[in-house]
Amino acid sequence: xxxxxxxxxxxxxxxxxxxxxxxxxxxxxxxxxxxxxxxxxxxxxxxxxxxxxxxxxxxxxxxxxxxxxxxxxxxxxxxxxxxxxxxxxxxxxxxxxxxxxxxxxxxxxxxxxxxxxxxxxxxxxxxxxxxxxxxxxxxxxxxxxxxxxxxxxxxxxxxxxxxxxxxxxxxxxxxxxxxxxxxxxxxxxxxxxxxxxxxxxxxxxxxxxxxxxxxxxxxxxxxxxxxxxxxxxxxxxxxxxxxxxxxxxxxxxxxxxxxxxxxxxxxxxxxxxxxxxxxxxxxxxxxxxxxxxxxxxxxxxxxxxxxxxxxxxxxxxxxxxxxxxxxxxxxxxxxxxxxx
Amino acid sequence: xxxxxxxxxxxxxxxxxxxxxxxxxxxxxxxxxxxxxxxxxxxxxxxxxxxxxxxxxxxxxxxxxxxxxxxxxxxxxxxxxxxxxxxxxxxxxxxxxxxxxxxxxxxxxxxxxxxxxxxxxxxxxxxxxxxxxxxxxxxxxxxxxxxxxxxxxxxxxxxxxxxxxxxxxxxxxxxxxxxxxxxxxxxxxxxxxxxxxxxxxxxxxxxxxxxxxxxxxxxxxxxxxxxxxxxxxxxxxxxxxxxxxxxxxxxxxxxxxxxxxxxxxxxxxxxxxxxxxxxxxxxxxxxxxxxxxxxxxxxxxxxxxxxxxxxxxxxxxxxxxxxxxxxxxxxxxxxxxxxx
DNA sequence: AGAGACTTCCAAAGCGCTTTGGCTATTTTG
DNA sequence: CAAAATAGCCAAAGCGCTTTGGAAGTCTCT
Lengths: 340, 340
Known about the structure:
Two copies of one chain form a homodimer.
Chain A: H1 3-10, H2 14-21, H3 29-41, H4 48-55, E1 60-67, H5 76-90, E2 94-101, H6 105-114, E3 120-124, H7 131-139, E4 143-146, E5 158-161, H8 163-176, E6 182-186, H9 192-206, E7 217-219, H10 224-235, E8 243-246, H11 249-261, E9 271-276, E10 292-295, H12 298-313, E11 322-325, E12 328-330
Parallel strand pairs in A: 1-2, 1-3, 3-4, 4-5, 5-11, 6-7, 6-8, 8-9, 9-10
Antiparallel strand pairs in A: 10-12
Helix pairs in contact in A: 1-2, 5-12, 6-7, 8-9, 10-11
Chain A binds a DNA duplex through helix 2 and helix 4.
């Protein structure tokens, strides 16, 4: 059932039927009703390919997925996706994942824009002066960044959590508990979120006359193994930290294992705080010692990004609006006063 | 730059240029070269929307993503995606995720097929007599199932791992080590993979005159917490198992925690084997006691599914070919002889 | 040399929608 | 009451590609 058939059936022109269906004003309300009715009754659905060719709009949002044998997709991605899908579903928005060589995402961005494959895109895990961001900004496709970049002479729309504030608060808590040697186990130091977290921690330390020594900060991909290694290194130093702030729950698993291997205890010998993106399959309250966290649901972020993307597509949102979500600090058993 | 301009520039008809580009035989090789050349030089790329309207092919593969507030996307999904993307990238195949209400995926399947939004789809986590499978089979769109279903009177193309064989082998090993009370901590019992695993285990036990008691089998979503709970229940029984086979590494984390909480030791009091889908961020060799596993890379499966999907789209693969991958049994420190 | 078979190319007809530019009544306005 | 504005509808022109149905030229064969 296509437009032609439907309009013939109604003894109307395709023009009128199309307009009636798309809510244009120059059509009699009575006629519109008739059209709407017939459309519903016959289950008419405009062919998206045709509509797309005519309008240039696809009704889909895009994400360029970096791939490669050595590239691991962040497990956070799936939770973010959950949220995104949750919103998208109710608006019949589909998501197009365009796999790209991790070393050359530009080609892919250009392709999906040139082809008008999607109406908007989102970027994630941005770095300072991220090329993708500059690119997408000049390409002129609506977009939103999940996270933030730095060092641009233009503003851009984004959704981020207050990473700096979160780690500032976590550190402040530890300092108040008497800790003087804090350490940071961070994610990839080239990503903005990691930089912000470090910044927040340094600020809290500085405010109390303390500093974060070079060897008290470790950065690596957020795996259990890297968490373990970082923790071992830190704890085997001459003057080991008495508190660690850690960028991910997965890494925290490794930290806990390292602490055990070394015959130490949490929180007796070491206080631990980690950032929690809220995974359904790994919860901080279920750690051997319930883990204190800075918490922010990445799933909600996904839903919000979808919502804003949809708003941008339909012209309801414009400009370079940045949105920063506060982060909860949840104190559980893994923190205690500094050992004497 | 579109076909019209390009053909005008070459003083050829659109027909000829289109044919030259698409490899049709009825065009002079010399002409073809000229066309190819010009196309490359001017960076001509056929507009996919137009091509799509004309051919009905979209160059994309689809996946219906069940969503909802209470629905968690499996963390395995992201690894599978990695593999899929890896292959898709090299073939400029995009993946369309169509979010659907988890209680009504049918509408979404019908929509993407009716709209010809994608050339093929894949399904995952099938259950016995899975409705989606029957649906997609009648809708007539090329598809592949990742996993298997049961109870249909038709065959269908799938890619699965030998879950039954894997758990059979794991159980056999434990039995050989003298264990008589084995327990199974399984994933959702309604999914086929879980049924197959249980079957494999029962078969190994039966072959040795043993059985799997009702209370020695637990099924639940594969989270750390559920692993913990299942393990506690099992180990607090009057006659606790001396060996557990567990369907997921994430659940195994919970099992390990439970064992610790109860003051028991692996492998002294309990032998443990788990299935490992190979996550980059959580490796069995890094468990407190290196974990024995049945191992199969879900990432490779993703790549293979993409490959077969591509083959089906282009007509290179046909029929209901099923492919079952063997699973490695990797023995590490978490298994030992049964306690006396 | 003429018929038939290739080879190589083209004009034009879709694919199914949106949108432009009227056209005809009917209402409103001065 | 004539002129102007408005309401409601339509025919036809795209959007940019693929594909059908020739047509013209070249070979092959008898």
